[in-house]
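Workshop exercise sheet. Pairs work together: one partner reads the sequence aloud, the other fills in the structure field after running the prediction. Swap roles for the next sheet.
Pair: D.N. / O.F.
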Amino acid sequence: MANTRMGIFWMLVHCLALASVMGIVRALTESGMTPYLIMFWQNLFAAIMVFTYTLAKKRKLPKTKKLPTHFVRCAVAISAGLILFYTLSHVKLNLATAISFTAPLVTSIFAVIFFGEKMGYHRFIGLIIGLVGVLVILRPGTEFFDPKMLLMLIVVVFWAITDLVIKLLNKTESLNSMLFYMTLVMLLYSLPLGMFFWEDINLKQVLLLLLLTCLHLTNFATVSLAYRDSDVSVLMPFDYSRLIFSAIISYVFFAEGLSIWTAIGSFIIISSAVYVAYREKKHRQKISTAIVA
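Structure field:
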C-alpha cells in the first residue's frame, strides 16, 4: 500500500511537471524563441546538470547494452519535442493537453502491431470512443477547426513509440543509465540545431530555460519512479490530472479558458482509455487465475 501511495504521488508530480513544461515552452515561443533553439538549450543545460551530478557523485559512466536503441529512442523523442514546441506556439495549452490523452490508445494499437497483442472487441470499442472524443475537440468542418491541432496527434504517435522503446530499455537498463544516455544522445542531436538556428537570448529566457530543464528531468525521473512503485492500471486515472494543471496554468498565465467542447472531448477520451485499461486488467487477472488453476 505504501508503494502504491508513493507511485500515485510520483505520478501527480510528473503530471504537474509535464504541464509546467508545456506552459514554459508556450511562454518561450511567445517571447520569440524558435522550437529549435529551445530544444538546443534544454538539452545543453540537461547535459551539464546530469554530467555534473555524475562527476560529483564520483560514479563510473553507466554501462549500456542498448546504445543503438538509445539513439532510436532519442531521434523519436526529439522529433516529438520539436513538433510539440511548434504546436504549443499555435494551439491552446489545455487543448493540446486534451488531445495528448489519446496516447494510451495509440500505444495500444502499436502493441497489437509490434508485439502481436490481440485486438479484442473491448480494445476496439475503446479506440472508437476515443476517436469520437478527438473529433469533439477538433470539430472538423466548423469555423473553430485549426489544422495545426492535428500536429498534436503526430506528437502522440511519437510519444507512443517512445513509450514502447522505453519498455524495451527497462528490461536491461537502469534509470541512471537511461537518463545518462538520453541526455548524451539528445545533446548530440541538438548541436546542429544550435549551430544553424543560433540567436542571442536574454536573462529572462535563460531563467525560463533553466526551469524548463529542471522540470524536464523531473518529469522523466518521476514517471519512472511512479511505474516502479505502482501498476499502470492504478496510475492511469491520476495521469489525467494534467488537464487540471494545464487548465490552471492556461488561465493564470495565458488568460485561456477551458471550452465546453474541450471538456466534453477530454471526458470521452479519458473514459475510453480507462475502459480499455480496466478491461485489459480484468483479462490479465483471468489469465493468471487460469494458470494458477
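Discussion prompt: The mean pLDDT is 83. What would you look at next?
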